[in-house]
Amino acid sequence: MHIYHPYMYDRPLRPSPLRVSTTARYRTRHAEMRHRTRYAALRYWEVNPAVLDDGSDTEVGDEDTVNKERCVDSDASPPRASDTSDASTSKHPHGAGPKDSKDSSASASTDSHEPDSKATLAEDDPDSEDEETGDLRVMLLRRIYEAEKAAEKARKEEAATAQARKDEVRKASEEVKKAAEETAAAQAQEDAAAAQARKDAAAKRTAERVKKVVDAVRAARERGKKLEEEKRKVEEERKRAEERERAEEEVMKKEVETNTVVVAKTARRKAASPEVQDWWSANNVWRRP
């Protein structure tokens, strides 16, 4: 069982320091303090791992070298425009630029390679000497006319082919459209027939339901009539029974009255007899019937 110190409520202490010797008490106290210190150090390292290990692979010297290299690279400046201009003029000391050199080389090449047109025509066309200029023009015109005629014919054929293709496409589209319309009309007819059939079936079912209801109402009315007839018969039978009972009661009343009168007369007659008188006097009864 733990004993809590009066001014330290956050942790349980050892059992009753009064039962332990002074040496053991201080030994325990020092051990506890050492444990506290170690635990506090562990907590500090856990919160701040940089105290034990920085975790970075680079060293201070490496970072300095990198910074120095960056400084060197930033100090380097690009070449100036005057240097480039000097370099370009050094290639052409007399002031002639690359454009002038190109023009001069082109003129030289054209001068060296310019062909003789007359010699070339003579070499290419050996029959020019035999044919006259007019015949050559007529032949060229005829060829041009034939080429234009062939081109026109080809254009007409292409136009006819294109028109025929367009007609075929139009006919095919019309046929497709017509078939679609026929299909739509047939589908509409089928839908209308199906709708009519559904309507007829619904009307038939409604008529059957109405007939069933009418038959049920008629049967209920007939049953009501039969019940009314039975009730009437029962009521009549009850009335007849009551009348019979009333008649029987009247007859019984008459009979009772008759019997009462007869019995009274008989009693009176018997009471007037001497035997009864003797009995009354013998029994000392002071009352007469």
TrEMBL record:
Biased composition (Low complexity) is annotated at 182-196
Q: Where is the composition biased (Acidic residues)?
A: 54-64, 122-133
Tell me the leader sequence span. none
Feature: compositional bias, Basic and acidic residues: 149-181, 197-257
Q: Where is this region: Disordered?
A: 52-136, 149-289
Q: Composition bias, kind Polar residues: at what positions? A: 280-289
Question: Which domain of life, per UniProt?
Answer: Eukaryota
| Protein name, as recorded | Uncharacterized protein
